[in-house]
């Protein structure tokens, strides 16, 4: 990550506070592995921004580094000049997230030599940004020292917001195959996504099958694919011919995604695959999600959009799930399930390749090998769902946090038991607002990051369940 840094100054405050603040910020950024684009100390007085001329210099610096800058950090060692900061951001032309940090005063140092007044100055800066139409993010505490754990957490969260904003706005998604006819749930507006910046490329399953069937078992690409599958998951319960078929699918899907620079995919995982090719594609989808190229079932394009957003927020794999079953009579617990496409990160060392018994009742179990089976252990849990509300012409979402539990559940496929506080209220919101039965999940707490990105920078109607 690279942040453009603006050090705000108001001239009649002590110079030493500006020099100290600059050093503090650069030290913390370096500690967290974040690069900084900042005025040289001799470019303006102390390298800070106060006047119109300072703002122009800062804006030109940011313009020259526009392809590098993921977000802007405004630091206020003192009151700061609200107009100079707003002018610098406006003139830069950057459309990136902005974080406002203000130093606290020490109660025993409110004398002229150490007085900051950044508590007040931050309000003025935000007022000007609001007037200029520049969206911005706040730290958890109104004033916070950069070297505290609180601010470091603010910064980590902000870089997650920056990733979501940068990469979701230009995402290239792949829709492989047609939506299963029975799944009106996964319909979406490609035009609404495109208007936001998300492009969708499509390919018919017949093309995928045709290319896969032309591959020889001895092809080096197939052998390499087989080796990757074998290194990824136990296949001892699956006929070798079914594994070879999956390896060929992986070769063809990888090639198509590379050709179109696809970063995430949604695949027609049933029933054409089983009826016409003879395997499930779950393992290949699991491997892609584990490799940070999320893949969703049933051509759920907005589902994989949700997966990609969660992944960007905290750089951990995501998965698509069904809100599937109640857990006994506990109103705050439920079972998450899918046939078996979850990234192995969710399933631990006990994961194995197997079949899909529910699908097998209609297409034959022998045609459903390729699922990833296992249960998610206890840990942090975040969920999200992005959808296109075509009736109202908008994109909307919900996000929230909960917990994976070690509570037992005797079933097959990829599964998890979760606890979500006030789960019944969440289910009411999902049903009342026409959301899908699919949600995306990750094993880290990320809902605050997505809520900030979606509401502040995308202006999506977002429900944060707390």
Described by the principal axes of the CA atoms, the overall outline is elongated
Helical stretch tally: 15
The tally of structural domains comes to: 2
- Please state how the strands of the largest beta sheet are arranged side by side: 10-11-16-15-14-17
Gyration radius (Cα, Å) is: 25 Å
Strand content: 15-25%
| Beta strand count | 18
**Largest beta-sheet characterization:** 6 strands, antiparallel, barrel
Low-confidence stretches: none
Decide which structural class fits the backbone.
Answer: alpha/beta
Q: Describe it for me?
A:
- With 466 residues, the protein is of the alpha/beta class.
- Helix content is 39%, strand content 22%.
- It has two domains: 2-167, Rossmann fold, CATH 3.40.50; 172-465, 3-Layer(aba) Sandwich (L-fucose Isomerase, Chain A, domain 2).
- The strands form three sheets. Strands 10-11-16-15-14-17 form a six-stranded antiparallel β-barrel, surrounded by four helices. A five-stranded parallel beta sheet has the order 2-1-3-4-5, with helices on both faces.
- Helix 5 crosses helix 15, helix 7 crosses helix 9 and helix 8 (220-232) packs across helix 9 (240-259).
- The longest helix is centred in the middle third of the chain and has 20 residues, at 149-168.
- It starts with a strand and ends with a strand.
- The model has no long low-confidence stretch (mean pLDDT 96).
């Amino acid at each position: 990550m690279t942040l453009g840094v603006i050090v705000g100054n108001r001239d009649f405050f002590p110079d030493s506070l500006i020099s100290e603040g600059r050093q503090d910020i650069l030290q913390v950024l370096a500690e967290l592995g974040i690069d900084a684009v900042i005025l040289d100390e001799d470019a303006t007085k102390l390298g800070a921004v106060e006047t119109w001329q300072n703002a122009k210099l800062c804006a030109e610096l940011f313009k020259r580094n526009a392809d590098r800058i993921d977000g802007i950090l405004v630091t206020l060692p003192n009151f700061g000049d609200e107009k100079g900061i707003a002018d610098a951001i406006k003139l830069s032309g950057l459309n990136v997230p902005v974080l406002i940090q203000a130093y606290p005063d020490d109660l025993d140092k409110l004398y002229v030599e150490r007085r900051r007044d950044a508590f007040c100055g931050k309000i003025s800066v935000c007022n000007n940004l609001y007037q200029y139409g520049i969206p911005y993010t706040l730290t958890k505490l109104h004033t916070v020292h950069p070297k505290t754990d609180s601010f470091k957490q603010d910064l980590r969260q902000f870089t997650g917001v920056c990733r979501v904003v940068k990469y979701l706005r230009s995402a290239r998604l792949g829709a492989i195959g047609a939506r299963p006819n029975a799944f009106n749930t996964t319909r979406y507006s490609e035009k609404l996504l495109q208007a936001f910046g998300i492009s969708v490329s499509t390919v018919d399953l017949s093309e995928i099958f045709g290319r896969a069937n032309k591959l020889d078992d001895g092809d080096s690409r197939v052998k390499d694919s087989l080796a990757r599958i074998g290194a990824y998951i136990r296949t001892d319960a699956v006929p070798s011919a079914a594994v070879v078929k999956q390896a060929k699918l992986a070769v063809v899907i990888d090639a198509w995604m590379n050709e179109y620079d696809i970063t995430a995919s949604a695949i027609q995982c049933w029933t054409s695959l089983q009826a016409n090719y003879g395997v499930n594609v779950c393992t290949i989808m699991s491997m892609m999600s584990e490799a940070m190229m999320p893949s969703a079932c049933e051509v759920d394009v907005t589902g994989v959009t949700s997966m990609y957003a969660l992944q960007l927020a905290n750089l951990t794999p995501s998965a698509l799930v069904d809100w599937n079953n109640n857990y006994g009579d506990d109103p705050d617990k439920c079972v998450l399930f899918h046939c078996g496409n979850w990234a192995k990160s969710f399933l631990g060392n006990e994961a194995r390749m197997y079949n899909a018994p529910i699908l097998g009742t209609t297409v034959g179990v022998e045609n459903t090998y390729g699922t990833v089976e296992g249960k998610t252990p206890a840990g942090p849990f975040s969920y999200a769902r992005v959808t296109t509300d075509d009736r109202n012409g908008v994109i909307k979402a919900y996000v929230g946090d909960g917990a994976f539990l070690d509570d037992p559940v005797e079933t097959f496929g990829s599964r998890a038991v979760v606890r979500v506080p006030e789960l019944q209220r969440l289910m009411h919101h999902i049903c009342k607002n026409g959301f899908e039965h699919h949600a995306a999940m990750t094993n880290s707490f990320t809902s605050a990051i997505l809520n900030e990105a979606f509401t502040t920078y995308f202006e999506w109607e977002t429900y944060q369940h707390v």
